[in-house]
Amino acid sequence: MIVIEDLRKIYRMGSVEVKALDGITLTIEKGEFLGITGASGSGKTTLLHMLGLLDAPTSGKIVIDGMDIALLNDYERTMFRLYKLGYVFQDYALVPDLTVMENVSIPAMLRKDRAEEQTKRDSLEILQKIGLCDRRDHLPRELSGGQQQRVSIARAMVNKPDILFADEPCANLDSENSRMVLDLFREINEEMHQTIVMVSHEDWHREYFHRIVRLRDGKIVSDGKNGKAGAVNPGSVQIPET
Amino acid sequence: MGQKELKVAFLLALRSLQRGSRSSVILTVLIVGMCFTNMIFLPSLFNGIGQSITKQVVDYEVGNVLVSPKTGDQYVTDLPATLDLINGMPGVERATPHFSKGATLTYRQRVLGVTVRAISPKDEELVSPLYTKIIAGSYLGQDDTGEVIIGKPVAGDPSIRQEDEFQPSLGGVRVGDSITIDYGNGYVKDYRVKGIYFTGWSQADSAVYVTMTDMALVDPKSADNADDITVKAKPGYSETFIKDELEQYGVSQKVQTTSDLLSKSLGRALQSFEIINMVSLIVSIIITTVVLFIVITIKTINSRRQIGILKAIGVDKAVIMHNYGFQVIILAILGIILGMALTLLLAVYMSVNPIVTPEWSATLYLTPMDLVTNSLILFVAALVAGYVPAYQVSREDIQTAMRA
């Protein structure tokens, strides 16, 4: 479970202060497939980065599975990301010099509780699940965008993390590949009871989310179950869908 | 930093070199290889020159130990007894006397001032390789009289006109010809040229050799006196051991090792060599360090986003730093291997085609220690050059790196 309390992030550009996040309070239950939506500049990616320990908030608190992440030092944050979290980026972010198998294996190889054999087994298993086992020796540049994104998902899932973060994973994909990726997320969520937090600005992605949080100017403007968005966060303002 | 982290860092480094820019890898390895060659070539050449000069001096001038007249004396006296004493000592291969006199040679119309060296041919064979350097005719017999061997430059070349000669000569003396030697003490004698030699050591090649038996006729003093005695040590015996032994056994003359003599005569030249070697070494290290620093800096700048991503997925900054560190280590090792191969090829080539001057002929003088020392120096320089930018980039926060 993720508990966020009064989260704020302020960027200073010279004498100007930009409030990227302005008092976000939110709870994400285990096994939820949460969609974060909003216009460009609304703070979606900033929130995802805060939750994913990729950036530090200016103030506020994030507690993941009972752990206040502000208390972690740099190395502990790295290990927390490795063992507990998975990431899928908009541009796939695969290492171009590594094969599909190597890209997927890297996070598993670093885990101290996994033997080499298990790392290999887990990597092959996840590659089979995403349907790219036969392309495991290919380099990323030899794959289509959709295939690369599936490899990216496999890399994020190989350690079976508690939470999967996805930052507009379909932004560079056509509709067909986007649906393939989203179907994969749904499958992972349903079969593995995986918590997924995904940033998206595509309306048609809504059908995949259990719950949708909508941001505007760094604030939650709506938060509700899919199809019935409502203001559930005290202090947040509900703005009708446009 | 555990074994798993190092394994991942090595995998990332290896794949980056294998599948990254091949031309960049080849160019970097070439530069490191050239720098290694540059580091080792000049010092080895100077060492080769030093070794060459030392060998020539030992072979044709002083042996391993030189016994010369003590201060105030003109000759080593009581020669037969002194020779017996020295030759009887453990560690002495052989001692041989020399007696030199200035003289004027005349052959046809040519007149040439030279040093006539008297030797004991049999003993000389055990001390000096002169007898192996005969290029025409034959070496002196132990009691030859009226016969002489002369250096090739003294004999001269009949096809070169006198005014075109680099060094004055007799204009083309051949084996069997007769030359006249005027010793300046009123003794003038015709000699048959028994052999012509060429050692490559100019002082030996500019002389003529006669036997001690013959010299005794010219100057009776030479029967019991010598200018010096050169001593050859048996294998396994040091020069210092022989010197100490000679002094302890009561050789009352001045006893000096080759090192004693060379430190005086070649000391300054060797100091100059050392300075040039040091400059060459420093320049090579600077070039290698700068090149590797630039290569790794460019790599890290180009990979900042990727570094941010790796950190985001839980790769520790130490793994990222060692990734670039391993790349530098691999590049440096490949460069050093290439440099060693180039240096050894040059050494083989120069052993077949040495640099020859009138004074010396030099090859590359390489020792395993030279190769190891220079490899280590270059390796450490490469590590510093690689790890500094790697350390800097690995400390960058994820957001800054990912925005790059």
Ordered list of secondary-structure elements with their pairings:
The complex is a heterodimer of chains A (242) and B (404).
Chain A: E1 2-13, E2 16-28, E3 33-38, H1 44-51, E4 59-64, E5 67-68, H2 74-84, E6 85-88, H3 100-109, H4 116-130, H5 145-157, E7 163-167, H6 175-192, E8 195-199, E9 211-216, E10 219-225
Parallel strand pairs in A: 3-8, 3-9, 6-7, 7-8
Antiparallel strand pairs in A: 1-2, 1-4, 4-5, 9-10
Chain B: H1 3-19, H2 22-62, E1 65-68, H3 79-87, E2 92-107, E3 110-119, H4 121-127, E4 134-137, E5 147-151, H5 152-155, E6 178-182, E7 188-197, H6 202-205, E8 207-211, H7 212-218, E9 228-233, H8 239-248, E10 254-257, H9 258-265, H10 267-302, H11 304-312, H12 317-352, E11 355-356, E12 361-362, H13 368-394, H14 398-403
Parallel strand pairs in B: 3-8, 5-7
Antiparallel strand pairs in B: 1-9, 1-10, 2-3, 2-6, 2-9, 4-7, 5-8, 6-7, 11-12
Helix pairs in contact in B: 1-12, 2-10, 2-12, 2-13, 10-13, 12-13
Which stretches of chain B of 5+ consecutive residues score pLDDT under 50? Answer: none
CATH 2nd-level architecture of chain A: 3-Layer(aba) Sandwich
- Which stretches of chain A are low in confidence, meaning pLDDT under 50 for 5 or more residues running? 228-242
Spatial extent as radius of gyration of chain B: 31 Å
Average pLDDT of chain A works out at 87
Structural class of chain B: alpha+beta
CATH homologous group name of chain A:
P-loop containing nucleotide triphosphate hydrolases
- Radius of gyration of CA atoms of chain A, rounded to a whole number: 18 Å
Oligomer, anyone?
A: heterodimer
